[in-house]
Amino acid sequence: MTGAFITGFVTGFSLILAIGAQNAFVLRQGLLRTNVFWLCLLCASSDALLITAGVVGFGAMVTIYPMFPLIMAWGGAAFLFVYGGMRFFAAYKGDYTIITAGKSGGLWAVLLTGLALTWVNPHVYLDTLGLVGAVSTGFEQIPEKWAFGFGATSASFVFFFSLGYGARFLAPIMGSARAWRILDLLIGITMWVLAVGLVLA
Questions:
Q1: Which of 35, 76, 123, 148 is the most buried (most CB within 10 A)?
Q2: If DSSP states are collapsed to H, E and C, what string results for 118-169?
């Protein structure tokens, strides 16, 4: 049981560690120190649902809907391209007065963006339904399989809350408009690279 939990935790943490759209948004929100708890809870809970689905029925969705990966890839690429463009526009416009004052969008706006970056991102399905689901097949006993899933789920909660609340330690260097412009440019580049990767995959 312990071995299965550790395997699940390491697997989940290693997959989620890569910089992506979801992580970049949580980092940005963490730097603003607003709606951090609810955003982290949303992202981690979404991962938990997807990980559970992956452990319970690996490959079932793709078998039933063969076109699902392609649809998600193009839909996700379109969303990432638009969101990346928004970050480039924000960097070009350069008005960070509200942000440097520590203000952000409302709770619902933040949560809706978090939902979109989570559920419209094909990489999330690949990691949770695909890779985590595949690794879980190595545990044949039900208790071990659930221990593995719980470990992977725990990794998501640890990661997102650490990222969201740990971002405040970067706050001293994010007090200028120039720093936020650079961050938005980096996020925009990341989004577009991910979008191109989805289309070409």
A1: 148
A2: HHCCHHHHHHHHHHHHHHHCCCCCHHHHHHHHHHHHHHHHHHHHHHHHHHHH
Whats the size of the chain, residue-wise? 201
188 pLDDT more than 80: yes
- Per DSSP, helices labelled H in 17-121 are 21-32, 36-56, 60-64, 68-93, 97-100, 107-119
pTM of the prediction? 0.69
Report the amino acid identity of residue 51: I
Residue where the block lists tokens 């989570």:
118
pLDDT digits (tens, 9 = 90+) for 34-58: 899 999 999 999 989 988 888 876 6
Q: Given the structure tokens 């595949």, which residue do they identify?
A: 134
Rounded Cα gap, residues 2 and 39, in angstroms = 29
* Closest to 42 in 3D by CA, of 109, 155, 118: 118
Supply φ then ψ for residue 153, to 5 degrees.
Answer: -65, -40
Question: What residue has token string 């989940």?
Answer: 12
Give Cα 131 to chain centroid, integer Å: 15
Q: Per residue in 83-137, pLDDT tens? A: 788 878 878 876 655 454 555 568 888 899 889 888 887 777 777 776 676 667 6
107 vs 15, residue with greater confidence: 107
